[in-house]
Amino acid sequence: MKKIALLGSTGSIGTQTLDIVDHHPDLYRVVALSAGSRVDELVEQANKYRPALVSLATKELADRAAPHLPPGTRVAYGEQGLIEVAASTDADIVVTAIMGSRGLPATMAAIDAGKTIALANKETLVTAGHLVMKRAKERGVSILPVDSEHSAIFQCLNGERAQTVKTITLTASGGSFRDRTRDELASVTVEQALNHPNWSMGAKITIDSATMVNKGLEVIEAKWLYDVDYDQIKVLIHPESIIHSYVEFVDNSVVAQLGLPDMRVPIQYALTYPDRQPTPTEPLDLAAIGKLHFREMDYDRYPALRLAFQCGRLGQSAPTVYNAANEIAVSRFLNGEIAFLDIERILQEVVDRHQVCAVDYIDAIDEIDRWARSVAAKV
Ligand code: NAD
Ligand code: MG
Questions:
Q1: Is the CB of 207 under 6 A from ligand 1?
Q2: Span(s) in the chain for CATH 3.40.50.720
Q3: CA distances (Å), origin 297, targets 15, 131, 236, 281
Q4: 201 in ligand 1 pocket by Cβ < 6 Å?
Q5: Ligand 1 within 6 A of CB of 263
Q6: Dihedral of CA 46/47/51/53: which sign?
């Protein structure tokens, strides 16, 4: 029986993780849950799973939840609450399904506590990949990918020697606007941007898919998870999202992982690894699909992806700035404050204003992250 702590239990990845738990009650037990502001959903989850600890974003929300929690469930709140959910229970594995670099302190605390990390919260690796990976190595902690592309790469690399990898290709669906020209993007609405063709996901990652920032974050995530150079990481547009990513080896053999687009497969693989178990998902029928399509990535169409490669190559504080500026730009777009193409403009402006520097401590990351957010809120 594996004990699970789940950060972000009411979100897209969080609820799909609980669906996996429901299908394997003999394999998993939920011992801690955290959510942002959805009190009623968290209370419902707490009464169903009876965890030792739950956490909400603020004290006020935690006070609202407290009278409705089952006996034996303690409630915490804020950043400290997230850290407690990640590190203070007897969980074996922590699923990081919250959005944004705010997941960093809790992820570090979980690593320090020796928990296996099932990582969905890619922003954590983008903002501080060098520190997270170093700490995980020091503590002998595994970081298992939940992101579908990274789970695919992880599965392709199973049993292979790192030196035999030539390139890694991340596939990209192209997001909600893949068939529109740049001119057509000027007036797109929030509602249109939130309408992803293949995946049902949280709002922020859906917008990131439309700007291709999501793939940019994934390129940096892949660099840290698989210790490859940026020259070895390729991106290919594949509208059907059936090939989730692939690895090319030195002998020109290509190993890919395929399946219907359903996050419960990679979520469960992170939980069962190195074992496999049946999932409550539909099997792939290639004959029914008939054709798969591929297009070369167009970096002029998606300049935010080019900027991600540039920031990744610059390293140090550059990815932290890229990520934080994007988080603010996306929330401004979702609030109706700026136009869709302003997201890219803001990203470029904040990166241009930044003098890249070393970030050797979490506090330094925090400082740069706050600086980038304050600039992105104004430009
Ligand atoms: P989401 O918006 O659906 O869910 C976010 C969760 O975080 C919710 O449970 C929310 O209540 C919680 N939360 C928000 N503010 C909080 C706070 N202050 N304190 C504690 N919890 C808070 O997001 P999602 O789509 O599930 O994505 C989560 C992460 O997984 C992101 O990093 C995303 O990039 C990554 N990811 C998602 C998918 C997907 O299919 N949704 C795929 C790959 C990777
Ligand atoms: Mg992905």
A1: no
A2: 2-145
A3: 32, 30, 5, 30
A4: yes
A5: yes
A6: positive
Q: How far is the CA of 163 from the centre of ligand 1 (A)?
A: 34
Q: Where in the chain is the domain with CATH 1.10.1740.10?
A: 315-379
Topology adopted by domain 2-145: Rossmann fold (3.40.50)
368 CA to centre of ligand 1 in angstroms: 22
Strands 233-237 and 2-7 come out as unpaired
User: Is the pTM higher than 0.90?
Assistant: yes
Closest atom of ligand 1 to 121 CA is 32
Taking the centre of ligand 2 as the mean of its atom positions, its distance from the CA of residue 124, in whole angstroms, is 14
Regarding the beta carbon of 347 and ligand 1, being less than 6 Å apart is answered no
Q: How far is the CA of 252 from the centre of ligand 1 (A)?
A: 37
Which mutation among 9, 13, 124 tests ligand 1's pocket best, with the greatest number of atoms within 8 A of CB? 13
Quote the CA–CA distance of 196 and 201 in Å, as a whole number. Answer: 8
Q: Tokens 């925090």 sit at which residue? A: 366
Single-letter amino acid, residue 340: F
Q: Are 132 and 107 in contact (CB under 8 A)?
A: yes
Q: Is the CB of 208 under 6 A from ligand 1?
A: no
Closest ligand 1 atom to residue 98 Cα is: 7
Q: What is the pLDDT along the chain (379 residues), one digit of tens a residue?
A: 999 999 999 999 999 999 999 999 999 999 999 999 999 999 999 999 999 999 999 999 999 999 999 999 999 999 999 999 999 999 999 999 999 999 999 999 999 999 999 999 999 999 999 999 999 999 999 999 999 999 999 999 999 999 999 999 999 999 889 999 989 999 999 999 999 888 889 999 999 999 999 999 999 999 999 999 999 999 999 999 999 999 999 999 999 999 999 999 999 999 999 999 999 999 999 999 999 999 999 999 999 999 999 999 999 999 999 999 999 999 999 999 999 999 999 999 999 999 999 999 999 999 999 999 999 999 9
The CATH number of 315-379 is 1.10.1740.10
The answer to whether the CB of 83 is under 6 A from ligand 1 is no
* SS3 state of residue 171: strand
